[in-house]
Design brief:
This protein has helices spanning about 85, 105-115; strands at about 5, 25, 40-45, 50, 65, 95. It is α+β, with helices and mostly antiparallel strands. It has one domain (about 1-118): Alpha-Beta Plaits, CATH 3.30.70.20. The strands form 3 sheets. A two-stranded antiparallel ribbon has the order 1-6. It starts with a strand and ends in a 5-residue tail after the last helix. Bound molecules: iron/sulfur cluster (SF4) (2 copies).
């Protein structure tokens, strides 16, 4: 499953640079699917909506850092453990129980967003 950031976040910014997928953004920042990935053209999001990968999306949180579920792979394929959780000083990067994904699903996601054949 992907990770999420809780309201305990103190906005230190330590996690953002560690993410291999650029899935972490500062609160109130717009984000895109293409940033930090090799995605090109159109993308169908988890709601089944087709969108341009370069199109800027509205922030998911405004007061503290957030993780884009569609881009979080638990760092699979890059690191042995979630890097955001490793560096967070207040332990507020936690598993997102609402987004259950198997290791196989996460690896597929990682290969998809970085456009590598499985
Ligand atoms: S677990 Fe890894 S991929 Fe997911 S947000 Fe944290 S650093 Fe990024
Ligand atoms: S490392 Fe933790 S406290 Fe710092 S910005 Fe990231 S989630 Fe927030």
């Amino acid at each position: 499953m992907s990770l999420k950031i809780t309201e305990k976040c103190i906005n230190c910014g330590a996690c953002e640079a560690e993410c291999p997928n650029k899935a972490i953004y500062e609160g109130s920042k717009k984000w895109s699917f293409s940033e930090g990935t090799n995605l090109k053209g159109k993308f169908i999001n988890k709601l089944g909506i087709k969108m341009d990968v370069n199109c800027l999306q509205e922030p998911i949180k405004y007061d503290y850092y957030f993780i884009v579920t569609e881009k979080c792979t638990e760092c699979l394929g890059f690191f042995d453990e979630p890097q955001c959780a490793s560096v967070c000083p207040v332990n507020c990067c936690i598993l997102d129980e609402k987004n259950l994904e198997s290791k196989e699903d996460l690896l597929k996601k990682k290969n998809f967003i970085h456009c590598k054949k499985e």
